[in-house]
Amino acid sequence: MVKLTNTLAQIVSILLHPLLMPIFGLLIIYTSGTYISLLQYEAKRIILIVVAINTIALPLLIIPLFYRLGFIKNLQMHIHKERILPIAFTLIPYIFSFYFLKRLPIPGIISTFMLGAAITVGVSLLITFWWKISLHMIGIGGMVGFIFAFSLRLHTDVLSIILIAATASGFLAWSRLQLSAHKPSQVYCGFLTGGLIMFLTLLLL
To answer: What's the pLDDT at 11?
Structure first.
């Protein structure tokens, strides 16, 4: 039973991995029913490809490389200081994505969303120097904060999406605790950190 529960927790952690959050955010923007949904298909596709390469493909290539070079002892990076270098290198393509989107003739909220994601990674990096905060919960918390801010900024009803994101947050928090990957304080602080950064970025910038 314990093995089955841990397997389920692993699946949840993979499906809601923080590297996937920018793509989830873009899909929410695309299907929001706002004026942004009217963006041309080709533009949507290019944005999605660029963001996927920079926020998923490149970071996933970096981590195994650091493992082979001996900078990290395992791919899970249980020791918080082992996470510093991978997070630092992950931040670079996030910043590049923001600058790329900023130069495109697209609604500003898309590039602002990516800016919030980059700031979140940067803050995660600073915290990781001293503490093992939950990156998973920072990611899902950022998604919840983004959805709230998006709803307020564009005056759109996203209650169903908020409920889905809140439920997913609960499952993810459970999975990180079930796998003993984090202490409760690291999980809760991660969620609040990501949520506040994305919420304030989307509303103030």
So the answer is: 96
